[in-house]
Amino acid sequence: MSLIGSLKGDKIIWIVVLSLSIFSFLPVYSASSNFGVNLIFSSVFKHVAIIFIGIIIMYATHLIDYKYLRGLSLVILPLAILLLFITALQGNEIDGANASRWISIPLINISFQPSSIASIFLLIYISNYISKNREKKLNFSNSFVKLWLPILLVVMLVLPSNFSTAFMIFSLCLILIFIGQYPIKNILLIVLSIVILATSFVGLSKKYPEMLPNRVDTWSNRIENFINPSIDNDANYQINRAKAAIATGSLFGVGAGKSSMKYILPQSTSDFIFSIITEEYGLFVSIIILLLYIILLFRIVIIAYKAKNSFGQLVSLAVGLPIVFQALINMGVAVQLFPVTGQPLPLISTGGTSIWTTFFAFGILLSVSRNNQLEFSELNLNELNNE
Fold this sequence. Notes:
By secondary structure, the chain is mainly α.
């Protein structure tokens, strides 16, 4: 029996995830060249180790019945919100802006982003809540505490330090709730309320910046420079270098490890690694990578469609859609379809917590897929016995 044949769940997801993960070693090694000889191998070794641990996480998760996530989300989400609150209280600042994204574990000196854990378990929690209350007539008043309050807490705690992540979390929550057939008028009411609160927050932050360190100026500058790139060429330095790398790559690229932009493009191993890939391997390989993420999207929808219960359907979309959306946003930023967001390219960019949560999400998807296959096999066996 082949290795792929011994794996459970959707085989295409296994192949795509492992292919992107293994391919990531090449651009990470190349993009790390601007770190110096010693740091190149340190960065690559760390990335390989994180990917290897991530694959173990995915494999272990896919063997566990996804239904246990119902109870797990009730425990992990409050802890994640508490960690977000502790992280926000750290008061880390860069140029006067709130930069409290990371929290360190005492004694072992390992840092991680609570927002990664909070976002995935928030979406799992929402899937559980919507699926359990699907037969009830939900409205804003009877669902505020158990549904909207956790969403608002997570979004508001992430917002001051990371607008793009907070926006993506809130958008995905709305999509999931909409799919779960929550009343549209109540969704519109929440959106209107959030817009008013966000506008007030931006206005107060600009008028009284000393009250709450934030990144409002950074957000507004990025949006202004995206709308009108000629405003400030220095502010568009990253985008200009990223587009230059893509243009240099042409159809088949300049060759593996031969990127020139990796020496001057900030965040070349994370936020803008897609530009380095296009420069070295060309538009042809970049399109293949885009298609692989599109294939993942189709497989996510198929797994959700085949799930036998509403929780399986919702949790498949909850953990799968954010990965594909994040990939499309990362690639869109590189070609200036979106403002600079700081979102990494899943399975390829360097990282830590974000990579592990991505593999954990794929493990959940494979668990749903494995259960779909088991239920289908049992159904066929019962039909044969009845005959």
